[in-house]
Amino acid sequence: MSKPSVVLHPNLPPGVREHLEAHPGIAALSPSDSAGVAAALSDGGEVLVTHTWDSAFLTPSLRWIAGTGAGFEQYPLAGFDAQGVVLTTAAGVHTDCVAEHAFALLLALTRRIGEAARNMERARWEPLIGEELVGKKLAVIGLGRIGDAIARRAQAWGMTVAGLKRNPAGYAGPVADVRGTDRLAETCAWADIVVLASPARPDGRPVIGARELEALGPGWIVNVGRGSLIDEPALIGALSTGRLRGAGLDVTATEPLPADSPLWRDPKVVISAHNGGASPGFGKRWGVLFDQNLAAFAGAGSWINRLGQDIPRGT
Amino acid sequence: MSKPSVVLHPNLPPGVREHLEAHPGIAALSPSDSAGVAAALSDGGEVLVTHTWDSAFLTPSLRWIAGTGAGFEQYPLAGFDAQGVVLTTAAGVHTDCVAEHAFALLLALTRRIGEAARNMERARWEPLIGEELVGKKLAVIGLGRIGDAIARRAQAWGMTVAGLKRNPAGYAGPVADVRGTDRLAETCAWADIVVLASPARPDGRPVIGARELEALGPGWIVNVGRGSLIDEPALIGALSTGRLRGAGLDVTATEPLPADSPLWRDPKVVISAHNGGASPGFGKRWGVLFDQNLAAFAGAGSWINRLGQDIPRGT
């Protein structure tokens, strides 16, 4: 059997390209741009490694997308189903990393490190009274692997945690107080801190809008899920005229965040550039996943993180 | 019995002044500057609430210093002994707060939030590959209350922790791997991350110098103890020409850090202005401590955090 032809999208997380280009079991192709990816897939490429999607990538020879992200809202799932394309995600590969990133953003708000870092440019030594997480109430929106990892860390640090989940029944993670999404506003009112760790809604509508921010009141919000989860104009309003104490955003409605967004200039905001999952350990862990799925692709062994099987289509 | 005359230093942590000025059991005096403090103490003041010391404060009427900090290196202990002045510290009051601050600085380095925050001024959306704490080796220098609180948080997040202590014998905290200070260099070589959480040495000499930074190699260092614990020129050298990956400093050799220090301009550095213990919860917790000590001062009940009794003079 000839080696499968694996097309690498030019934009991949750290270590993934290194793993694949040195892989003895595949024929790796590394186009330099999106048009090159489409051309390689038109020319018989069977496997695509990507997190970015373009409609030109769905060619007749495509059989497996080895995704490098945890989400899948960008993919045309009906088109994949129609021609039997398998999609595997990287869910779980960056769980710890994103959970730590959520706390990095949250602590940058509560300990006012975002302001202190910006003071450094002016060599400004400013007393800044921070806050403590211990004893605070944290609402985690989305109790998948990342939400659970955030909840575990918070519990270990003396916080009280509640979680919101579309289907609380059958949940077997670390959070005892699991609520259905119908209790969103009540949960925002209860919480000191809201952390968003869920995928985008299929229709792209926000979960957190003006009503939820008003319910949260003088609290903090952190988003390591998807930018579309927060109504950004409502967030800007709650920061400028409302009681919201701070927002930590690794994702924004439009990425990169446009230069004219007032979020860039608000001292109560800390923004990172969708870096939550980026770590040098990513490639190694993703490679283990890829290798097992490569065996499944060759008919030996079972898939991991296959959408519609291990990974539910709706969450 | 008349109410004790309590002199409040003008520079106090949040909530302390409010607690004392509303206190029915004391006669609170609030001078506006250091000279006023000395005058009030020369005029019969018995109790001084302060973290800042000036030799003019040691008057014949002074009987009790109710300290608002955990350290005591600034005080003339022999002078206090000579006239029977009691010193109580605020040890324990900001334990959780400082432990969280240490992680805020550490995560700002490993998740590159310090750089991301500085990018905000230029509306710059920059991919930054961070690191993960899980699985990393953390050396805590100083296993007092704060060091223990840092160790507990690290253990709960999947880090391996070793601690350095002058007298490992009799230690009963959360760290199993406790080493004597004679194993400092070896411990720096072992560690990925060094966190300093000890008081200053009595002689003011640094614990971490060029040799220890060389041993640490491509790691991170965080200081929430005292600025004198790190040889600052050696730190600057390790950042500019060595392998050190980052430094998070809540304390510096000279405070405020001079504007011409290269530490202000290094992207691998995050500096906060000795804010580790600052939280709105401070005053309330300190007030509980003060009230019990006020009873002890009046002869009813026992002292808490009294130096030489509950708090050892050497650590």
Summarize the structure in words.
2 copies of one chain form a homodimer. Chain A has 315 residues and is α/β, with parallel strands linked by helices. Chain A is 31% helix and 15% strand. In chain A, the strands form 2 sheets. Chain A has a 7-stranded parallel β-sheet, sandwiched between helices. Chain A has a 5-stranded parallel β-sheet with strand order 2-1-3-4-5, with helices on both faces. In chain A, helix 1 links the parallel strand 1 and strand 2. The first copy, chain A, is globular. At the A-B interface, helix 4, helix 5 and strand 12 of A face helix 4, helix 5 and strand 12 of B.
Defining key terms:
homodimer, seven-stranded parallel sheet, five-stranded parallel sheet
